[in-house]
Amino acid sequence: MQPTIIPRAQHAISRSNISNNALKVLYRLKGAGHMAFLVGGSVRDLLLGGQPKDFDVATDADPQQIRALFRNCRLVGRRFRLAHIRFGREIIEVATFRAAHTGVDDDRSVQDTTGRILRDNVYGSIEEDVWRRDFTANALYYNIADFSVWDYTSGVKDIKAGTLRLLGDPETRYREDPVRMLRAVRFAAKLGFELAPETAAPIGALSSQINDVPPARLFDECLKMFHCGHSARALELLFEYDLFGHLFPGTQDALRSDSGAGALLERGFANTDQRIAQDKPTTPMFSFAVLLWPEIRRLAAALESQQQLSAIAAINEACGEVVHRQLQRVSVPRRFTTPMREMLAMQPRFANRRGARALRFLGHRRFRAAYDFLLLRAECGEVDAETAQFWTDIQTASEAEQRKTFGARGHRGRRHRRGRSPRRAEQPSS
Ligand code: ATP
Ligand code: MG
């Protein structure tokens, strides 16, 4: 099959928008007599006038040939073997063209009984490589030999129309790799695209396939989805296509019994999107806190009333249990769950405005994060506005005023804690 070749004069991709390191890799491959293309999200984003976050290269050179050309090269991945060429902090991923699996049955290509692709290392030509990609918008190739764009799938037309269209038979493609359903949601949200009707149609019926995806891969995908700058829209689409409950079943239950809890998710995600738009830092621990809070809050309330636990003990126990259950689905690394649990377990402490403990609370190293979360809860009417205002005002008061307000004689936490072993402070609070 012949591609439509769009010459340099008829598209807007300029080398000045391509990373120098990616250009170096492309030119080196070409110089050695190989085909070399920029491919995937970078071509899509450049055509849309955006700044790609990374540059992927596709070539007819095999991994050994690639490695022979670059000193700074490492071969990675078992399921999908590719070369990482490292330039300081930037990594250019170089993949060899791949072919479909049909007829091959050896350790280069492995599919399970449900059609899932477990290994994908059968090399092929560009004509074959293109059909293994997910969406038409992600299947465009920018040729370094003459700066043209190769389009086998009408990807350019779909990009112009704002349509996200899965290649091939949608049901087969989702069964091969159920993460494609989540990618559909993420790209639709991020690019402001509509799913083509045939691409959207099977998702509802296949959504439970998500349950069989390894939790580590779901974490990676969640991270990209919730930090793509359009997470509020992605969340809507996850609900619309019945995907959300397979990622966060506990949260789904909590939302069913408490309709108000949905507002916290919407606002929390909108806050993250806004911060990204303003180039402010964001942390996954906050997104996961927002996602898990409705269930943690519900369980803590039950523990408090049924087992007569204190608010703080109840929240600690609920955090532990909910996080443990969630990790079976989405394996959020401990470096995020530990501060998240600490921050959430601090929420009941905002109710206490008297004494040395309240004063020390202000100096807690997670106070700021916990306070941001309190503000979010207040925006959603879960905490009264007066409480939020109190903790806003007290932060800018002088230390003497703080002591007076709290009726405390001690010092603020930071000073009080000096000399304590930092390792102890790192422990989760349960
Ligand atoms: P971004 O990097 O902006 O998130 P991207 O489109 O570059 O988007 P990557 O995950 O970097 O996405 O993948 C690069 C390319 O590899 C994609 O554009 C697509 O062509 C192909 N690809 C990635 N994941 C899959 C998949 N699960 N199934 C089929 N093709 C895929
Ligand atoms: Mg990419």
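^ adenosine-5'-triphosphate complex. The CA atoms of residues 259 and 426 lie 35 Å apart. Residues 40-41, 54, 56 surround magnesium ion (ligand 2) (CB under 6 Å).
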